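User: quick one
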Amino acid sequence: MAKRKDVTKEQIIEIAAMMVRTRGCNGFSTRQLADEVGISSASLHHHFTTKDDLIAAVAATCRDRVNRSQGVIAAEIEGFALHLSHSSQALGDDALLIAMLAADFPTLPAKSQDEARQLIANLRGWLSRFVAQARTDGELPEDAVPDQVAGNVLAEILGSALLQRVALPGTLPVPPMTWGWQRVD
Amino acid sequence: MAKRKDVTKEQIIEIAAMMVRTRGCNGFSTRQLADEVGISSASLHHHFTTKDDLIAAVAATCRDRVNRSQGVIAAEIEGFALHLSHSSQALGDDALLIAMLAADFPTLPAKSQDEARQLIANLRGWLSRFVAQARTDGELPEDAVPDQVAGNVLAEILGSALLQRVALPGTLPVPPMTWGWQRVD
DNA sequence: GTCTATAGACCGATAGAC
DNA sequence: GTCTATCGGTCTATAGAC
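Assistant: Done. Structure below.
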């Protein structure tokens, strides 16, 4: 009967992810996170010795989530644009989390940078493979470069997540994803 | 003959903008900025009393630049997708700067938040008007919603600026902008 | 695994001399 | 307009008791 709260790493990571989304990796302190979790700063550092370890764990957990959601999405949806629209929805809060990791990337310590890079590479790679399949199916021009299209799609997903929070209160709702493809000569 | 360096606000803003792009608003200190400029922390605070004043000035300066570049772009380019591709290029480093302001937005103090909001609203508004014109010219479907398309375009510009820095060294070059439009029912 | 207490560095900002 | 010096606060991280 856990008298001593026995907070789990998973709980900490979840709240840390929330703080990365809302404040960025450099926008919150380990103390503030500890307060939010409900433990002391020292207890937090018992679970994650350094902030680097913590952010890296947040990124790694996100990567697991994203990789799992990919299978679900691929099995359910048909059609390129529609598929990508649903991909964005499936990412949910992770779109913003990934965007913040990308924004803070140059200031992240080693482990965190490695995890963030793998997370984004995984996601882009998967999008790229889907684009390649869509091209094979005739949904895209033959000369479409899958990795480029995947980059464009991922850029819009991340950028859209950021823009949502800057909107003036009481104006423009979030633009739904409506991708397409067009040659630019 | 400025013996006392007589650093101008413009010089400070320029270097501050660089630090916002590379480290984010919460990723550098006023001390580090002062060192980079080559003056003392006290001198920096003489020009900008608070960090809020500084970031707000960076955003305001960016907005001026963006607003000026809009006229240039509109006069030179024809064609929707091609135009937008050039818009992205014209923004240059400002795309990343705007993306970082959006990422840090929730943690910014009052003045900075106001300036960042105006900057993004200006840019999106201009993109929206361009989209409306392109629709009138028959380059887009009649039921395209200009503000939504503008949001999608801006999202990709900002997201693309972020993603460029996360690329693994020695891999994927930046995907060029190749927007298009397609109904999603 | 939790805590209190604290180290040592850095933070934003100010005082006051020149 | 620049500087040195410093204030009071926060930062990440650790020591050591329970």
